């Protein structure tokens, strides 16, 4: 039996990122892991609904023996077996982020056909939106050979959630090609996805109009592609979101913002636009939110991967420390926390 890997989840970023990466690699590589101090630094430590849903799903797929899979647990023993794909539905039960649920299962989809529906939050704070996965993350992973797709059936906002997403993966051609995204090359256009649910139709339009004004003040000759969505009749979940993407020949960089009760729609659009301007400031090809989601795939690929980011996040550093516990690879970082950086690794040619 492989040696048990011990991980103190209070180190580094200290949140759910440790749990997601560790369990994904544990299941993929069939290596048992003990994770303790789960979310120890949070106001409500331990597993929340969204974490527990992902833990149970990955345990079911990998036929794992597991201890500690209950609400508020801070200590998990996870011993996986061979992954057996099966169709299933998951209801997170809150506005827990569907994107973070999917993030944990993506590595398992490299060798397996996964096919399931997830209910929860599609656009929530402190998590990438599903729109971001579709337009920034998945296209980059596709270039490496990964085949993921997600379709939003209904949006879900805090606090009720009620969003629904269908996800599918097809077996990738392994080993993955290296991920190389250095400088953003040959700017094409901006894309805007502005949406709302249970709110007046003009909310989406006002968010988009404000974002366009802010971005075109900085880039007056840029082309603009806009997609508006408003589901006024839906009352199960109420909220708004805007996702913006700068589309280049070799990459897309994204930023988003969420509406809040009592906050003007124009300020929401302006916030997202200013975030995107900041992501574009370094000329690097991977935005700061996408970077940590690429690291596992860089380590699994064949050959030398390199990404350049406008801001090195603590999420990245935490993810790197976990990956190096599972795989015989060593990341190199040229840069410092919260500053532009290059991240490099020689992948292990996982098959």
Describe the structure.
By secondary structure, the chain is an alpha/beta fold. The protein has 3 domains: 1-84, Translation Initiation Factor IF3 (2-Layer Sandwich), CATH 3.30.110; 86-173; 183-280, 2-Layer Sandwich (Dihydrodipicolinate Reductase, domain 2), CATH 3.30.360. It contains 8 helices and 16 strands. The protein has helices spanning 16-29, 49-61, 98-105, 130-144, 202-218, 265-280, 291-300, 314-326, and strands spanning 5-8, 33-36, 65-67, 75-79, 88-91, 114-120, 147-154, 163-170, 180-181, 187-197, 223-231, 239-248, 252-258, 302-309, 332-335, 341-348. The chain is globular and about 60 Å long. The two termini are 20 Å apart. The model has no long low-confidence stretch (mean pLDDT 94).
- Annotation, overall tally of beta strands: 16
Q: What is the total domain count? A: 3
- The topology string of helices and strands comes to EHEHEEEHEHEEEEHEEEHHEHEE
Radius of gyration: 20 Å
Overall pLDDT: 94
Low-confidence segments = none
Approximate shape: globular
The percent range for helix content is 25-40%
* Alpha-carbon distance between the two ends: 20 Å
The oligomerization state is: single chain
Strand arrangement, major sheet: 1-2-4-3
Strand content is 25-35%
């Amino acid at each position: 039996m492989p040696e048990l890997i011990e991980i103190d989840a209070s180190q580094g970023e200290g949140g759910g990122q440790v749990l997601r990466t560790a369990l994904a690699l544990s299941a993929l590589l069939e290596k048992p892991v003990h994770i303790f101090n789960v979310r120890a630094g949070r106001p409500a430590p331990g597993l929340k609904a969204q974490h527990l849903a992902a833990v149970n799903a990955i345990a079911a797929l990998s036929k794992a023996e597991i201890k500690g899979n209950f609400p508020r647990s801070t200590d998990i023993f996870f011993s996986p077996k061979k992954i057996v794909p099966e169709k299933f539905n998951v209801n997170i039960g809150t506005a827990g982020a569907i994107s973070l649920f999917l993030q944990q299962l993506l590595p398992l989809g490299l060798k397996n056909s996964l096919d399931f529906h997830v209910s929860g939050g599609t656009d929530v704070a402190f998590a990438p939106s599903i729109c971001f996965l579709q337009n920034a993350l998945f296209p980059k992973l596709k270039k490496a050979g990964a085949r993921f797709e997600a379709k939003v059936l209904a949006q879900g906002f805090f606090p009720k959630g009620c969003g629904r997403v269908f996800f599918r993966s097809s077996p990738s051609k392994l080993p993955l090609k290296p991920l190389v995204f250095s400088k953003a090359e040959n700017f094409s256009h901006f894309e805007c996805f502005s949406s709302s649910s249970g709110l007046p139709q003009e909310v989406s339009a006002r968010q988009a109009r404000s974002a366009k004004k802010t971005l075109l003040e900085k880039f007056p000759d840029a082309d603009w592609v806009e997609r508006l969505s408003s589901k006024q009749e839906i009352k199960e979940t109420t909220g708004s979101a805007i996702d913006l993407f700068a589309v280049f020949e070799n990459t897309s960089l994204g930023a988003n913002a969420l509406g809040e009760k009592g906050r003007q729609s124009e300020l929401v659009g302006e916030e997202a636009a200013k975030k995107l301007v900041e992501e574009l400031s370094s000329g690097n090809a991977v935005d700061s939110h996408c970077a940590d989601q690429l690291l596992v795939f860089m380590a699994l690929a064949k050959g030398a991967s390199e990404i350049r980011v406008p801001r090195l996040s603590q999420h990245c550093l935490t993810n790197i420390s976990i990956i190096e516990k599972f795989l015989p690879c060593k990341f190199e970082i040229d840069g410092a926390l919260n500053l532009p950086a290059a991240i490099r690794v020689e992948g292990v040619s996982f098959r």
